[in-house]
Amino acid sequence: GELFLAIRLSDGALRHRQYRIAHRPGSLRAAAAAALAWLSEPDDRDVVLDPFCGAGTILIERAHLGRYARLIGSDRDPAAIRAARANAGPRYKPIDLEGWDAGVIPLPDASVNAIVTNLPWGVRYGTHGENRRLYPDWIAEFNRLLAPGGRMVLLTAEWRIMQDLIARGRIRPEKIIRAALLGAPASIYVCRKPR
Predict the structure, then answer these.
(1) Backbone angles phi, psi at 153, to 5 degrees
(2) Are 84 and 53 spatial neighbours (Cβ–Cβ below 8 Å)?
(3) Is 152 helix (H, G, I), strand (E, B) or coil?
(4) If pLDDT is split at 50, 70 and 90, which confidence band does 183 have?
(5) How far is the C-alpha of 149 from the C-alpha of 194, rounded, in Å?
(6) Do residues 59 and 114 lie in contact, with contact meaning Cβ atoms separated by under 8 Å?
(7) Distance between CA atoms of 95 and 85, rounded to whole angstroms?
(8) 51 compared with 6, residue with greater pLDDT
(9) Within 13 Å of residue 107, how many CA atoms lie on the same side as its CB?
(10) CA-to-CA distance for 35 and 33, rounded, in angstroms?
(11) In angstroms, what CA-CA distances link 30 with 15, 37, 58, 117, 136?
């Protein structure tokens, strides 16, 4: 009663990106990062924030999708920021890569109109217990930073934590997309802040 048809939508260039000279454990593949960036509905006026930028893959893939006003990446791990800077090189301007904590980002309220990120899953970085404590703070900070009408695209495997945040009204996704990354089940939460 069902038919699943798989069609390759890109050639090997999306899998083997030339900019990827530095890698971090837990980094997204370029195709997954490009899909997240695409779900943010790119606009040439975008100020895009990835508060867990790691090696910078999501920001760089967003740059490949078209013009933007500014790219901002933060990560509290100095090695991740070094990797992101190496991957971005002199391209993708303007881009700012900072060693900020995602729970306290020193940007004004409503200063970004797209937040696209791969949240910690509690596997390679952190733990499930830490995530349970920190996710509410991160989501509150993202809501503070997001401008009215702005879009938020969040990838995580912590579906129970996200369901709790949804039930408490902390986040209101327009859609939830189930995914599998390297065999691990995950979900993508696509949200828009009301105008």
Answers:
(1) -125, 115
(2) yes
(3) strand
(4) confident
(5) 5
(6) no
(7) 9
(8) 51
(9) 27
(10) 5
(11) 6, 10, 8, 13, 28
**Cα dihedral 80, 116, 181, 165 sign:** positive
42: nearest Cα among 16, 81, 71: 71
Q: Summarize pLDDT for 124-162 with one digit per residue, the tens.
A: 666 788 889 999 999 999 999 999 999 999 999 999 999
Pair of tokens at residue 16: 């083997």
Question: Can you list the alpha helix ranges (DSSP code H) found in the chain?
Answer: 30-39, 57-64, 78-88, 128-145, 159-167
Most confident of 22-26, 119-123, 131-135: 131-135
Whether residue 72 contacts residue 47, with contact meaning beta carbons closer than 8 Å, is answered with yes
**pTM (predicted TM-score):** 0.88
